[in-house]
Amino acid sequence: MTYQFCPTCGTKLQPHDAGDDGQIPYCDHCQRFWFPTFADCVITLVATPQHEIALVKMPYLSTQYESFVSGYMKPGEVPATSAVRELHEELGLHIDQITPAGSYWFDAANVLMHGFIAVTEKQPLVLSSELSAAHWVDAYAAHQYMFPDQPGLAATELYYRYLKSLQ
Description:
167 residues; alpha+beta; 33% strand
């Protein structure tokens, strides 16, 4: 989000030189820069030691394609804590191991996605109200359910990173 008015006092912001950052919205009244902000999300590929991946269907994203558990971070959370929380909230999973797997910009939603690969023993999937379906799928067959490959798509990047780790 690029600010046009000061969130503190409501004054219309004016471009002001902020050194290497260039022209940044500035409040003359509060004497403060308002740098653009964006949300942080997590996306987690969760797999079993037998190389099965949990895929979920989120109807607000697609009625056709499946993906991995994702969600917004809460204030004060670090990404790994958020990822573990989301897996528990959306699928009822308890995670044995979680590893950072990159960060990805999702332009359509203006969010920074922190990627993770989690490993856990196979457990029943308990769906939250945000999901319409979820199932364990053989890792090598998961691509047939997922969004078509696109450069920069976080789920695609995580999926191929996971497959590479199996070699």
